[in-house]
Amino acid sequence: MSTKKEAYLCLSAMLRAREPKLLNNERAERMLDAASFEDAAKILTDCGYPDMSQMTAAEVEQALAERRSEIFEELGRLSPDKELVDVFKLKYDYHNAKAIIKAEAMGSDAKRLLSDAGRVSGAELLELYHAERYSQLPPVFGKATAEARSVLARTANPQLSDFVLDRAYFEELKAVADKLNNAFLRGYAEVLSDSANLKSAVRTLRMGKNQDFLAEVLVDGGEIEPRRIIAAADKEGLAALYAHTVLEKAAQLGAEALSGGSMTDFERACDNAVNTTLRAAKLVSYGPEAVVAYLAAVEGEIQAARMILTGRLAGVRPQVIRERLRDLYA
Predict the structure, then answer these.
(1) What is the spatial distance between Cα 161 and Cα 183, in angstroms, rounded to a whole number?
(2) pLDDT at residue 3 above 80?
(3) CB 185 within 8 A of CB 292
(4) According to a count of CB atoms within 10 Å of the terminal CB, is the N or C end of the chain lower?
(5) Residue 187's closest CA among 225, 220, 229, 222?
(6) Are 291 and 11 in contact (CB under 8 A)?
């Protein structure tokens, strides 16, 4: 059961006061239109970031990772419900497990691919994985990591291991939402699951895979059950299935992608649908909603900042970067 909303009064007020400093679409456009990488980086200082104008791409990545870790640590300490931050840490645990398993399959070193933004640091997970001490990991995550490793050993196919980890990730996400008993958080978890399943369905159909493969890829936890997606697995069926939902536009673009349309446009629309759900938090004066929305906004901000800054450093044309950017919460 979630802590009473009144416990969030002070924290909500603090986060609402911070929202105007978040990277918004207007600031992102200014970064894209800036004369140089240095000028683009300086705009981010208005959002509370350090001056990254003299940094390399690797240093930019490190600075952004540190920013995320600082906010996770702060809100984990201040939030009445500590599990709210776990909602955002979860994906980094599962990203790390996937990276370690893929590296094992390829005979390479996973260290440089690991994030410390999860519940378990990248280095600790790597150590526990090689020692097979899965019981020292969070229960669902530990069990899934062991199973994924077993699948790799049996099939030599890291993609099949990914399916195991994806199912466990969404299982944990739903469990946190159910435990906190918050309608907004539950809706956020559902739209993440629905968006992931729509992406999987379109990718599966584009690859010409069968329904058995699709059944392996889909996850539980969304508003639209996997069996309904499998039954509707063609471009007309998917567009109709998601009609009158927040993913309606994304499903239409997914149908177009199945006929040669842009996957970039489709996937951006899926992510923007999630952001549309998050914006409903602005209508709530105080409560867990403010924390979830702020954390999601910071994640979107960091993703956009990375895309713009590393793109500018690499000499990618602003229009190409612009086409890949998601809508921002602020």
Answers:
(1) 32
(2) no
(3) yes
(4) N
(5) 222
(6) yes
Q: What is the CA radius of gyration of the chain?
A: 20
SS3 184: helix
CA–CA dist 329, 275 (Å, integer): 6
Measure the CA–CA gap between 51 and 62, rounded to whole angstroms: 13
Q: For residues 88 and 177, is the Cβ–Cβ distance under 8 A? A: no
Strands (E), 141-255: none
Alpha-carbon separation of residue 303 from 31, 113, 124, 175, 299 (angstroms):
14, 16, 25, 26, 6
| Dihedral angle over CA of 186, 190, 191, 194, nearest 10 | 180
Q: What is the dihedral of CA 33, 35, 41, 46, to 10 degrees?
A: -60
For residue 37, the model assigns a pLDDT of 95
Selection from 110, 124, 68 nearest residue 302 by Cα: 68
- What span, in angstroms and rounded, lies between the C-alpha atoms of 133 and 151? 17
Write the CB contacts of 133 (distance below 8 Å, at least 6 apart in sequence). Answer: none
The two structure tokens encoding residue 216: 């392996």
pLDDT tops 60 at residue 94: yes
Kindly indicate the confidence band of residue 168, based on its pLDDT and cuts at 50, 70 and 90.
Answer: very high
Q: Which residues contact 225 (CB under 8 A, 6 or more apart)?
A: none
Q: How confident is the model at residue 91 (pLDDT cuts 50, 70, 90)?
A: very high
Render the burial of 190-223: b for 16+ CB within 10 Å, e for the rest. bbbbbbbbbbbbbbbbeeeeeeeebebbbbebbe
Alpha carbon distances (Å) from 110 to 60, 107, 155, 233: 20, 9, 20, 35
